[in-house]
Amino acid sequence: MVRERREHKGPSVVARHRLSSYSITMPPPLILASTSRYRRALLERLGVPFTAIAPDVDEASVKARIGEPDAAAVALARAKAEAVAAEHRDAVVIGSDQIATIDGRILDKPGSAARAIEQLQSLRGRTHRLVTAVAIAHPAGLVEFVDVTSLTMRAVDDAALARYVAAEQPFDCAGSYKIEGRGIALFATISSADQTAIVGLPLLRLAQELRVLGFVIP
Fold it and tell me: Which one of 97, 103, 158, 194 is the catalytic residue?
């Protein structure tokens, strides 16, 4: 279903240019501005053909410039969608970003076992937030929304954290855990309006917005 192509071209709910009515006889091309295997797998669940294209966005510079986690997540999702939409103006483009945050700090993807264990140690026994932002760029404008999940981690000891990291290697995951895998065992409670948001793309709201844009789901 997914045809992956790489191109390198040079508040709780945010909505800009929200469509009050947008009727089309045939849906435009749908593009996921990401090559994340997690987001691709989630979008496939809606049964709508799409193409995945890597956006040319400097994520580190956006986070450094904005700093505040919620605003940074929205800005990154928007930048990804708009970067791809600029080259595909007839398409509907989905951009998304996810930021794990605690004490106002952004927890980046760890990239290594040592960093992953360090992040998990900072989260254990505490509640943190997972901010998932989505921007949908389309020929008539842009829609943005945010899903926030609260997760409370158990007081997991160092040996258990090391075993988890060695087993699942969550080096490309914000917060250093894969909730859809063994990472679920690290947590005591999870509060979320949409569990798919934890993996990287909130399908409940996304499906609603795509239906408004003319896509047949299911």
Answer: 97
